[in-house]
Amino acid sequence: MKISVLSIQAIALGAVPLTNGLAIARAANVVDLKTVSYFSLPFALPPTGDLRWRAPVPIEKAPPTTELTDATKAGNICVQGGALFEQSASIDPQTAAALNITAPAEKPVEGEDCLRLDITVPQKPKSRSLPVVVAIHGGGYSGGSSGGFPGQSFTQYTEGSVVFVSIQYRLGAYGFLGGSAIKKDGAPNAGILDQRSALEWVQRNIAAFGGDKEYPGIIPYKSDKSLEGQFQELLSTSTCEDIACLRSLSFEALSNSTKQVYKLGLANGHYGTQQPYFGPYVDGTAILGIPSKEFAKGAWSKVPLITTHGAFEGTIFTDSAVSSEDGVRNMLSLVLQIDKSNAFINDAIRKYPWIKFIGSYFDKPFFNSQVYTLLSIVLKWSKLNTSFWQAQTMAAAAAGVPSWKLYFQASPYVHGASSFYSVGDSSASMNPTLANTIKDYIVSFVLELDPNVWKKSPQQSKRPDWSRYTQASVLHIDDGSIKLKADPDANDVCDFWFLRSDISRI
User: What does UniProt give as the signal peptide span (predicted)?
Assistant: First the structure.
């Protein structure tokens, strides 16, 4: 891949300054992919010192500067959380080789000055005001960065038709610390507010990069008692007694304390192995209520929607050491923070009889029946879960909002598998033809708000038409076919989690 550096004194695709007067000195020009990338542009002030656990302050509040920004290199990533993904997200060497996955040349540097975003634009845009795709990375609210969604391959595939943005937000205890002290003197769900702040920055500034600011596309919660417990654990792992002291800690001291909280919470039985510990919670402001209830009330943005359900998303959240039904009970007790004798756990296990999983699933390189039972239950519960997205899709369809759903079960059979096809380099994927087809659907949705209109090549004109969501029309993708089939999630299992949102918190 050929990469050069563009030395410029103005913003890409024009001399329009950003709203805070930021001038970009250099950008990365990827010759082979015909794209220009701007890395690590700040959208908010560094949330350090007294700005810890407060709402992000727009970068426009920074003192005026004449310093030019070098946007050729990645900057800090936000402080990463526990060992969730270190233990379970690893891909075996054979799969990694097939996917052309290699370790980064340099390990990313963690830091609090991480409220930044990356922008990729085409070298030769088709218009002066392109649709914008905004990627918000996953990672269980504990890990991840903008580098997880590089936009070069996707932008190149669109042939000059989109601008791609990938953002970062505070993670773990930095972004989702709760409790009464935060309510009194801070901002609950700071990480969610970071995401919103980044989107607002995009709307204010994306025109300077050739994007249309009016056309953005944006690719269980804990109880108050649990949130207060997390805050007290953070105090106990530091030398502090209150939030003011925590804000005065050095970066190294606070980073060490937050990492110790994960170990302490696990030891105290506040969450289970392979489970994220920190995450969004209902605060009445950033998040008004339990998502499934908000969808049921119609309290959501009525915009066209595509959702993807990965058949093996639950693998990353599942402890593969579980080998008995009692082990499943113990894990669910930790996940849901209820006693293992609770009738809800009995009901959940009955919804997932092990006999259900000894057929087609076990021609995959997977586990034993008890692990798959737990995997399936945890997938339904996890914060980025089947039930949550099912609620979105069904609510959208019921409201007459255009919506489409994809059920992805192609290799590799791991968490986030579809992203290798949708964002990564198609030629390096395990199935280049499938990767191009998935990109075609997504690009068409970005450009036309319909996945069936735009087709890059005559070959793509043969791909199946993706009908709007009904319980009988979900696009199923596996290694050998793309077909419309019935929705595997439209059943009493999802209803079970919806109806008991007091426990499931979804």
Answer: 1-21
Q: Both ends of the chain: CA-CA distance in Å? A: 43
State whether residue 4 is helix, strand or coil: strand
Q: How many angstroms separate the CA atoms of 113 and 76, rounded?
A: 7
* pLDDT, tens only, 222-260: 667 788 889 999 999 998 999 999 999 999 999 999 999
For 324-341, what is each residue's pLDDT tens digit?
778 778 877 777 777 878
State the sign of the Cα–Cα–Cα–Cα dihedral 146, 151, 154, 160: positive
For 269-315, the pLDDT digits (tens) are 777 666 678 888 888 888 888 777 787 788 888 888 898 887 766 66
Distance CA 317, CA 378 (A): 7
Q: Are residues 185 and 40 in the same domain?
A: yes
Tens digit of pLDDT for each residue in 361-374?
434 444 344 444 44
Amino acid at 133: V
Omega of the bond prior to 412 within 30 degrees of 0, cis? yes
Domain final position from 191, 218, 245: 218
Partner residues linked to 309 by β-bridges: 407
CB 391 within 8 Å of CB 122: no
Determine the pLDDT at residue 431: 84
**Residues 327, 318: contact at Cβ < 8 Å?**
no
- The helix-helix angle for 369-381 and 325-336 (nearest 10°) equals 20
Helix (H, G, I), strand (E, B) or coil at 171: coil
Burial group, residue 94, by CB count within 10 angstroms (0-12, 13-18, 19+): exposed
Contacts of 262 (CB under 8 A, 6+ apart): 81, 82, 83, 172, 277
Residue 192 DSSP symbol: H
Model's pTM, two decimal places? 0.73
Domain of 186, CATH number, reads: 3.40.50.1820
Burial class (CB in 10 A: 0-12, 13-18, 19+), 147: middle
All residues at 6 or more sequence positions from 390 whose CB lies less than 8 Å from its CB, including other chains:
309, 489, 490, 494
Boundary of a domain, candidates 184, 218, 252 = 218
Classify residue 210 by its DSSP letter. Answer: T
Task: Give the Å distances, CA to CA, from 225 to 113, 289, 343, 439.
Answer: 30, 16, 22, 43
Q: What is the pLDDT of residue 16?
A: 38
